[in-house]
Amino acid sequence: MVERVAALEQDHSPSAHAMGSMLKIRGTELQQKMSEFLVESLGDYGAVAYPAPHAEPAQPRAALPMEETACGAATEMFFRRATTIYGGTSEIQRSIIAKSLFQF
C-alpha cells in the first residue's frame, strides 16, 4: 500500500492524500491491536513492571517468569496508544480522506 501511495503521489493523483491518510489510520490501529493482543496473551505477566535490561538492580533478584517475552510489553502497548494522536489524530485523517475523495 505504501508503494501505491508513492506512485499516486508521483502521478499527482488527488486520491494520494486520502490513501496516505488511510494508510496512517490502518497502520496505527493495527499497531494498537497487536500490542494489546500481546499484553492480553501474556495474562498477569503482561502487567508486571519489568526492569530495563541495561539497568543495574539495587539488589540481586530471581529471574521473573517469561521475563524475556514480557519485558516492555505493557510499556509498548501504552506507547502505541499515542500513535493515533501524533502525526495527526485519526479524526483529522478521516477528515482529509473525506475532503480528498468527496471534494468538500
TrEMBL record:
Enzyme Commission number: 1.3.99.-
GO molecular function: oxidoreductase activity, acting on the CH-CH group of donors
Matching InterPro entries: AcylCo_DH-like_C, AcylCo_DH/oxidase_C, Mycobact_Acyl-CoA_DH
Lineage: superkingdom: Bacteria
Annotated signal sequence range: none
Residue ranges constituting the Acyl-CoA dehydrogenase/oxidase C-terminal domain according to the UniProt record: 1-101
GO cellular component entries: plasma membrane
The entry's keywords: Flavoprotein, Oxidoreductase
SUPFAM superfamilies: Acyl-CoA dehydrogenase C-terminal domain-like
EC class (word): oxidoreductase
Pfam families reported for this sequence: Acyl-CoA_dh_1 (PF00441)
Name of this chain's protein: Putative acyl-CoA dehydrogenase
